[in-house]
Amino acid sequence: MTVYAVIPVKDSDKMRSLLNSTFKEDNSVKELPNKNAFMVSFNGTSSEFSKKLNLSGNEEGQSKDFRPCEGILFPIGAFGGYADADIWEWIKSKL
What we know:
By secondary structure, the protein is an alpha+beta fold.
């Protein structure tokens, strides 16, 4: 499983709604305390993840309720820093 950092470019509320509707079945989304970034556990490449989210709203057959939703996503290969313990525990449980 890969953990991705997801950074909304304009609208954190829209990104939150998109992520929660896309990954509603499990504990795949962790919102950071500042409410401006997310971590998402996804089994696939960055391209596959972007396509699943359909950020541009251009994918055939997918709902456009929350799109376009401008955001940047990238896989987390290594991590470090200082944050609440629950953030580190979530990351470790997904890697």
